[in-house]
Amino acid sequence: MSRIILASASSRRKEILQNLNLKFDIVVSDIEEKIDKQLSNEENVEKIALEKALDVAEKTNDTPGIIIAADTMVVADDILIGKPTNDQEAFCILKSLSGKQHEVITGICVFSTEKNRKIVSHRNTKIKFATHSDEVIWRYIETGEGRDKAGAYAIQGLGSLFVDTIEGCYTNVVGLPITLLCDMLAEFDVHIL
């Protein structure tokens, strides 16, 4: 099997691949994630995932392998929501999502440096938040769990308390849609089962 490289420092993505029993190395991309306002949200996450994969391919050009790169964004009312820069911003984000629906979009690029071939795709998931009081939102923020997460929450942790309904892929919201990833890896003869 080819060397697999995860182009991410995300502990969530690392855990997802470990749960699939994949053996992989981590080489973090340090590209600046720039949003192109001329592109759709789906095109932007795909573009950024591709840029991350190409950056890591350049860093590892001495060893052939298959690079997995991803980018996740949260969108509410056509507004892109990134990671909060401080607790007050986290509160504003969570307050704006309270009682409403938003979308989580993850772009994935699987790139074979050996074959110089790439597949890029994305997955969308709709999340409806329950309505919560300011006090509950602040108590969640104080846990620190959502500080480095797009949308200021982690669905796999205490942030799941905010989620009323989910329509689509759960692991997409965590940061790496497994079914889509497995289909993409199969195109490179990497089979999970």
TrEMBL record:
Stretch forming the signal peptide: none
Active site (record annotation): 71
Reactions catalysed, as given in the entry: dTTP + H2O = dTMP + diphosphate + H(+); UTP + H2O = UMP + diphosphate + H(+)
Top-level taxon: Bacteria
Key words, A-Z: Cytoplasm, Hydrolase, Nucleotide metabolism
Transmembrane segments annotated in the record for this chain: none
InterPro entries: ITPase-like_fam, Maf-like
Keyword Cytoplasm part of the UniProt annotation: yes
Compartment(s) where it occurs, according to its Swiss-Prot or TrEMBL record: Cytoplasm
Keyword GTP-binding: no
An annotated GO cellular component: cytoplasm
GO terms (BP aspect): nucleotide metabolic process
Database matches in PANTHER family: BIFUNCTIONAL DTTP/UTP PYROPHOSPHATASE/METHYLTRANSFERASE PROTEIN-RELATED (PTHR43213), BIFUNCTIONAL DTTP_UTP PYROPHOSPHATASE_METHYLTRANSFERASE PROTEIN-RELATED (PTHR43213:SF5)
Family from the record: Belongs to the Maf family. YhdE subfamily.
Protein name: dTTP/UTP pyrophosphatase
